[in-house]
Amino acid sequence: MMFQILINTSDISSFVNDQNFPVVLSSCLGGLAILCFILMYIKKSNNGQPPLPPGPKPLPLVGNLLSLDPELHIYFTNLSKSYGPILTLWLGKKVGIVISSPTLAREVLKDQDTTFANRDVPAAAREATYGGKDIAWTPYGTEWRMLRKVCVREMLSNTTLDSVYALRQKELRQTIKFLYGQAGKPVNVGEQMFLTVLNVITNMLWGGTVKGEERASLGAEFRQVVNEMTGCLGMINISDLYPGLARYDLQGVQKKTRILAGRFDKIFERMIDQRMKGVGDDGKESKDFLQFLLQLKDEGDAKTPLTMTHIKALLMDMVVGGTDTTSNTVEFALSEIMNKPQVLSKVQQELDTVVGKDRIVEESDIQKLPYLHAVMKEALRLHPALPLLIPHCPSETCIVGGYTIPKGARVFINVWAIHRDPSIWENSLEFHPERFLDGKWDYSGNDFNYFPFGSGRRICAGTAMAERMFMFSLASLVHSFDWRVPEGKNLDLEEKFGIVLKKRMPLVAIPTPRLSDASLYE
């Protein structure tokens, strides 16, 4: 989940608030007038197949675009109450299918997994990922299997992650030291966790981090760049919905994405050039992931080679797709437990029993913290990082739930709605970690009542890394500090829909040291 680039769900907020959109849309209407007689809401196909799923009636040419709500996950959930657990929306010429039940999610992600294993690649994604050559967008087949193997078996396996534990430890301790220096002052927790994860990832990739006085300012700057990138990649784009207009890039989405991606590409080029010379970012001999990928490129299978383009695309996946997701989930989790002092007290009591106050949390402590694991699972239930996963795209027309799903449709799995379904979850809107203490739920994707990392062939490649970073980060934060909101401020838990689910209001909180010795913060 957290290490795939999450770039196909719509940043509807940008679409709705874009003042230029009516002008662009008007220009499209003239050019597309000949299509006004197309029966986009056909109930039954000519060959006698079952009809499309029900849904709100579309307008000519624009379909249901003008009725979309910025909070797309909530909008889809409310529509499902009227039209059922599978429904159709017309996004211009594109058919959108929304699925909101475990039974139908199983049909798509397990029973017909191969058919739905592809993606509907938006134009901006092709710009950002070197033509869609990354693990998120490459079509299902031998090339994708090769990339998946590189990521899951080599780069993100438990064995490999164990070998780079020292990097995660170093960065978490740098974060704790920085927060100690800010004791008694308001801190933007999301920015600091974003920078921590970014430092871990870049350190694992090529040894580069943001240090010292740069930390506070560059945390916000880097996060803004990633937000702009993912915003472009998720924006409603006429080029995707009306392919005949793609070459005109009427909204400038591709151009902006190209510029943003170019900023990352310059970094990648510099790092690759150094590795080709056999040195790291610090001038020393390098033994990082980038060096490993370059060796794999030289030694790879001639039938399905790992190319330099693949390497850059995987770097983009890791840097852009692996930062926002984890940091946002930690921010949600800390907000939820601050909002429930009894939960925070239980977490700290567990940490004090296992770790004590005379040393810092180590990653080896994580497996001894079942209540903190339950907190993570509950945070991912209420606030899944990918509220609609990455939409799937059937490679052929098929039947789901008794309805026809046409080839090339964009299929949204509303995991956010499933995770909050009151028929599945008791007190479904309450943050209650105890529901996960029985050990019943995991991240395997086999139970379609709870699958925050997705399921099937396209299940998140970075689950192991995400779990380690979340647990180690949250444990360090609540073990080392007590947390409170600034005087006169409220703790807001409202969500903002996007490619990755975010807090509408960033968590700004004041840390107070709670360990026995100040030297532990060094």
TrEMBL record:
What InterPro entries is this protein classified in? Cyt_P450, Cyt_P450_CS, Cyt_P450_E_grp-I, Cyt_P450_sf
Record protein name field:
Flavonoid 3'-monooxygenase-like
Entry GO MF terms: metal ion binding; monooxygenase activity
For whether the record's keyword set contains Transcription, the answer is no
Annotated organism of origin? Cinchona calisaya
Query: Which SUPFAM superfamilies does the UniProt record give?
Result: Cytochrome P450
* PANTHER family listed in its UniProt record: CYTOCHROME P450, FAMILY 706, SUBFAMILY A, POLYPEPTIDE 4 (PTHR47951:SF3), OS08G0547900 PROTEIN (PTHR47951)
User: What cofactor does this one take?
Assistant: heme
Pfam families found in the cross-reference section: p450
Record-annotated residues binding heme?
C460
- Sequence similarity: Belongs to the cytochrome P450 family.
User: Which intervals of the chain form a coiled coil?
Assistant: none
**PROSITE patterns hit by this protein:** CYTOCHROME_P450
Q: Where are the transmembrane segments?
A: 21-42
Superkingdom assignment:
Eukaryota
UniProt KW keywords: Heme, Iron, Membrane, Metal-binding, Monooxygenase, Oxidoreductase, Transmembrane, Transmembrane helix
